[in-house]
Amino acid sequence: MRPAGPDDLPALAALAALTFPLACPPHVTDEAKAAFIAANLTADHFARYLDDPARDVLVAVEEGGALAGYALLVAGEPADADVAAAITLRPTVELSKCYVHPDHHGAGVAAALMAASLDAAVARQAAGVWLGVNQQNARAQRFYAKSGFSRVGVKRFLVGDRYEDDFVFERAL
Question: Would you call the peptide bond into 91 cis, given omega within 30 degrees of 0 as the criterion?
């Protein structure tokens, strides 16, 4: 586990393009997934995330240097009114992304990414961490509950031209 750097940008974008669709419900079209990836998860986007002092980008690296997963955290008050109303802990950090390469599912990479993410939030002196997870993604919900998060609300998340329904989860630090 380590902070991402500029040399990771191509691999981060490739990993994001591979893993984001895995978290989408079945009805999300390939075009909508591609539009979201193009609008948020390119190497240029990750370069801006690395330069943003409110963001932390963490990577899980396997032997040989390939990326096994990544997490993106955003410190600060949520812009989404539904989230701001649902969460109770301030200051807060959003766990915006937490994805593991499918070849590493079940190998402890997600738990290590979560631990590193929570450590990064503590380093920012956050009282809590929140995240959004699609209401149909039961696997992710189980993982977040196992990681100490509780469901506190709902929000909408735009993928392509359609809003998806997410649960908001929060965890005290």
Answer: yes
Q: Checking DSSP bridges between strand 128-134 and strand 92-100, what pairing results, if any?
A: parallel
Nearest of 94, 101, 73 to residue 16 by alpha carbon? 101
pLDDT digits (tens, 9 = 90+) for 29-64: 899 899 999 999 999 999 999 999 999 999 999 988
Domain ranges of the chain: 2-172
**Bridge partners, residue 164, by sequence:** 157
CATH number of the 2-172 domain:
3.40.630.30
- Identify each DSSP E strand in 13-91 by its residue range: 55-61, 67-75
Q: Calculate the CA dihedral of residues 41, 141, 3, 126 and round it to 10 degrees.
A: 110
